[in-house]
């Protein structure tokens, strides 16, 4: 570091305040980080950073983040040489060596956590690098678009549904481009959009030097952190986890201080209700305390009831044709390449099933089924029934996730009391009503009224005092949040996540109510008549 008298002379010459001078001396004379200085001076870390901002201004140093510190360091070196002052400086490559040293210590742990994926009923995990297909990012959240209902209805037909509403006509960027351009990012997505898989791939790519190899990946499953005994802060949790891998606290602080970490916080929506506020406040504080680092948070889009000031919200787009092709080929490349071609042919010939393949989780499901049975069920109703069962009952259960994050407890609890059969019946009535009116979209107010009518007319509603005092907006958000079968396409405008599901639920209601005359009357509708006829087997639909 630099001699104290040299620093003191500069502080006086450039008129640093007494508070700035004491930070300046500890910073460049003793090599202390912000947290060490704050503890020694008994002030907050934020106060130390405010003083540093003033120091930069006094020395006319511009820039952002670690770049400003490097500029000041270079300027001090130049001044020291002019005055023949000997400085004991750590070379920059020492920091790079520290990054590589820490990566080596955490490599096995990161690989164990992030190097594989396992979903559905897989008997063994898959190598992530072999199967991963990059997701695309759209910067305009679809559910926040301000589009009038009448405006949408004028152009929304069965043929134009995807292009107009699902975001296929929006500009996409690659996931790595988004993370590279935006230092603090919240990646939102529907259930099964591939958020966790994307985060795992980011961690592995950083570890292996394929993406920001100069950084150390720190992957945190927020649900696990939130439920850790003793409720440690996020900082203490990260320090503790790394210390278990023989990384010292001083080393972690040095990395964070110099912006050498890629902080990956996965699954904000999976945090339990009682931990929700604490975790969000902790994330906010940690991201401000260590602001020079890169941050990525993932969350289901319907669970977005927060705002981190310095973060940018983006959304994971559905798979396009090329991504579906890539994923299927990767899935079968080592097992049976010929199956990939047959599955792609099946999808091409079956538009309603192909629509499901736009969701990475559902595409995984289709590959899994095809691998086992060598075909997609001849009865599409069987396939969709199994798929919906997975979304309604099994997906969260398999990952031990209890979604109880809403702050409006009553609305969510009412929905959670419904059986899977009740939920399916309610969605079937909603789908059938839209079929009768020839619509694919629902205004939020009308949709909430349908939900209320269904719940309040259940036999058990008469004995449930909460059933008639619902927070309907919360119930609707809960449906969207838990399994994503209804999604907000624009402000206060909803639809089914896939029209195939809407058609399935309509057929289910027609079967249940024996509305065969109506089926004949509406056979010219945009729904696939062959699918409805295929769905007449009552037992299979139920």
TrEMBL record:
Domain NACHT as annotated: residue spans: 183-271
Secretion signal, residue range per the UniProt entry: none
Protein's UniProt name: NACHT domain-containing protein
Organism the protein comes from: Pseudanabaena yagii GIHE-NHR1
């Amino acid at each position: 570091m630099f001699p104290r008298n040299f620093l003191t002379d500069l502080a006086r010459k450039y008129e640093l305040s007494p508070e700035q001078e004491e930070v300046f001396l500890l910073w460049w004379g003793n090599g202390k980080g912000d947290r060490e200085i704050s503890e020694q001076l008994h002030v907050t870390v934020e106060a130390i950073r405010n003083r540093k901002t003033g120091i930069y201004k006094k020395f006319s140093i511009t820039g952002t983040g670690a770049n400003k510190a490097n500029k000041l360091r270079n300027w001090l070196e130049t001044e020291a040489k002019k005055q023949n002052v000997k400085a004991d400086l750590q070379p920059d490559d020492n920091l790079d060596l520290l990054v590589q040293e820490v990566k080596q210590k955490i490599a096995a742990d990161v690989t164990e956590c992030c190097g594989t994926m396992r979903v559905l009923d897989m008997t063994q995990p898959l190598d992530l690098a072999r199967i991963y297909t990059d997701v695309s990012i759209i910067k305009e959240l679809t559910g926040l678009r301000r589009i009038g209902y009448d405006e949408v209805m004028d152009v929304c037909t069965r043929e134009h549904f995807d292009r107009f509403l699902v975001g296929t006509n929006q500009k996409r960027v690659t996931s790595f481009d988004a993370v590279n351009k935006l230092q603090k990012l919240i990646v939102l997505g529907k259930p099964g959009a591939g958020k966790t898989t994307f985060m795992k791939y980011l961690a592995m790519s950083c570890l292996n030097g394929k993406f920001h190899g100069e950084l150390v990946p720190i992957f945190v499953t927020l649900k696990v952190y939130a439920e850790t005994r003793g409720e440690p802060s996020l900082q203490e949790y990260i320090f503790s986890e790394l210390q278990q891998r023989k990384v010292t606290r001083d080393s972690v602080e040095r990395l964070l201080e110099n912006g050498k970490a890629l902080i990956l916080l996965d699954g904000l929506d999976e945090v339990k209700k009682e931990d929700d506020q604490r975790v969000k406040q902790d994330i906010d504080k940690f991201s401000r305390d260590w602001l020079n680092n890169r941050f990525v948070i993932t969350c289901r889009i319907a669970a977005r009831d927060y705002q981190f000031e310095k973060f940018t919200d983006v959304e994971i787009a559905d798979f396009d044709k090329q991504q579906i092709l890539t994923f299927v080929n990767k899935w079968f490349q080592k097992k049976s390449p010929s199956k990939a071609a047959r599955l792609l042919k099946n999808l091409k010939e079956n538009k309603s099933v192909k629509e499901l393949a736009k969701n990475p989780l559902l595409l995984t499901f289709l590959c899994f089924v095809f691998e086992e049975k060598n075909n997609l069920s001849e009865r599409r109703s069987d396939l969709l029934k199994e798929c919906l069962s997975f979304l309604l009952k099994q997906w969260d259960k398999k990952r031990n996730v209890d979604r109880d994050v809403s702050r409006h407890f009553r609305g969510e609890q009412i929905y959670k009391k419904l059986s899977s059969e009740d939920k399916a019946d309610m969605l079937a009535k909603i789908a059938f009503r839209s079929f009768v009116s020839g619509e694919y979209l629902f205004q939020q107010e009308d949709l909430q009224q349908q939900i209320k009518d269904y719940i309040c007319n259940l036999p058990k509603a008469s004995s449930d005092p909460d059933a008639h005092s619902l927070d309907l907006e919360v119930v609707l958000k809960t449906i969207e949040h838990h399994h994503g079968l209804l999604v907000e396409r624009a402000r206060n405008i909803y639809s089914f996540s896939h029209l195939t599901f809407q058609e399935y639920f309509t057929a289910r209601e027609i079967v249940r109510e024996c509305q065969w005359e109506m089926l004949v009357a509406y056979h010219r509708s945009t729904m696939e008549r062959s699918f409805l006829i295929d769905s007449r087997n009552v037992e299979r639909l139920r």
